[in-house]
Amino acid sequence: MTWRAAALPFEFSNLDIVVACERDDMGEALIRDLQRTRAGVRHVWPVPAHLPDDTDVIFCEFAPDLARRIPWVPGDAKAALVVILAREPSPDLDLLFHCAPDAVLHRPFTEQAAVTSLMLARAHFTYERRLRSRIGKLDETLRTIRCVERAKAILIARRNMREDEAYQFMRRQAMSRRVPIGSIASAIVDTEEMLG
Asked: Is the pLDDT confidence value at 82 over 60?
């Protein structure tokens, strides 16, 4: 049973996919299967010293030094990574782990396996990217809260205000200047550090 390109998510037609594998029968079949998704598919071989980071998905043959060829730091991926594994020899799982792939594709593979790994890798990558974005926003919120608390402590000590008065003072300043309260708090903290 074969899949149909029309049954795939529309976003696949907008993807840029790099395939870094030998252009043998399996490699040719993989490229064909991925082209049927209507995505743009580029082939590179041999695997370059640094894989491209200007793409959406990378299908790459596993190699012991693959982690060094990935142009981003773990946890900050720029593209979804699908590692292609040979049947023999068995891969070093520790090395595979350090590549942090979003999916794996075992040789020999079927048309459905290639497309399934593409869908899984893309879903995993976008989910992880959303999580990183949320974590970044939470980190920024936490920094702002700490800064506001520090600014309140400065106002309490310097201007003999109560805690609620210090907060209301910063809030009024933020509203009158049309800036976030964190900007006012940061200015107060910076001024205190500068003046000592």
From this structure: yes
- Beta strand ranges found along the chain (DSSP E): 16-20, 40-43, 57-61, 80-85, 103-106
Least confidently predicted of 45-49, 90-94, 145-149: 90-94
Which run of H or E residues covers position 136? helix 111-159
CB count, 10 Å around CB of 37? Answer: 21
Enter the CATH code of domain 5-134: 3.40.50.2300
Domain ranges of the chain: 5-134, 135-195
* DSSP-assigned letter for residue 104: E
Tokens of 146: 């700490």
| Contact assessment for residue 103 and residue 122, using Cβ atoms and an 8 Å cutoff | no
The CATH fold assigned to 135-195 is Arc Repressor Mutant, subunit A (1.10.10)
